[in-house]
Design a protein that fits this description.
The protein is an alpha/beta fold. The chain has helices at 48-55, 78-88, 104-114, 121-130, 146-158, 176-193, 204-209; strands spanning 4-16, 21-33, 37-41, 63-68, 71-72, 89-92, 164-168, 196-200, 212-217, 220-223. The radius of gyration is 17 Å and the shape is globular.
Length: 224
């Protein structure tokens, strides 16, 4: 019996604007098993990224519960949620979130420091080489193109061999050739390490490679 890595039960998210209560997610129930690859698809504004940030414990639901790695996130304080993320979770966001003052190599080894481990420089170099950035390791984010920054973010996400990898539009800013390489890396990680992949994507080619596709529509979920 496969273990659940992420469980959402009756999750809703509402935010208050000046005029009204806005419902972003409504009654979400979802169970993602260890080693699964799941694509969350749907139009812009359907709530895909909000669902991902809640599943990753970066935000908490208005109602309902989220379990990540067997822990109910709303029962944990910020520090404990951050500890689960630094221990077991990798992220690739559209906005990269690289540290501007660090080189590509230093950005990739950062998760080691956050876990209190020694920097594994050799692994970081191998990961940057695998995404085609062997000649750009000493460059800072400002010296890299958007696509190159995306690849640094991807290498960083793989650094700790995460148990769960959340990726928001991982191929969104990449040319076709690089996107293909990134897709191969994602699924290699999934297969070699049993990493659970949760991808938010508009790229149907990428979505079709996942074992499950879940469509979001106006804050609700349906299996695609």
């Amino acid at each position: 019996m496969q273990t659940s890595v992420i469980k959402a039960k009756s999750v809703s998210k509402t935010v208050s604007t000046n005029q009204e209560q806005l419902t972003i997610l409504e009654g979400i129930n979802l169970d993602i098993k260890k080693g699964e690859s799941v694509a969350i698809v749907g139009s812009s504004g359907a709530g895909k990224s909000t669902l991902m940030t809640i599943m990753a414990g970066l935000d908490i639901p208005s109602t309902g519960t989220i379990e990540l790695m067997g822990q109910e996130l709303s029962k944990l304080n910020d520090e404990k949620r951050a500890a689960i993320r630094s221990e077991s979770v990798g992220f690739v966001f559209q906005s990269f979130l690289l540290i501007p003052s660090l080189s590509a190599l230093e950005n990739v080894t950062l998760p080691c420091l956050l876990k209190g481990e020694d920097e594994d420089i050799d692994r970081a170099k191998a990961l940057l080489t695998s995404v085609g950035l062997e000649h750009r390791m000493d460059h800072t984010p400002a010296q890299l193109s958007g696509g190159e920054q995306q690849r640094v973010a991807l290498a960083r996400a793989f650094m700790i061999q995460p148990e769960v990898l959340f990726a928001d539009e991982p191929t969104g800013n990449l040319d076709q050739q690089t996107a293909q390489k990134v897709i191969e890396l994602l699924f290699e990680l999934n297969q070699q390490h049993g990493t659970t992949l949760v991808l938010v994507t508009h790229d149907m080619k990428l979505a079709e490679l996942c074992e499950r596709r879940i469509r979001m529509q106006a804050g609700r979920l349906e299996e695609a």
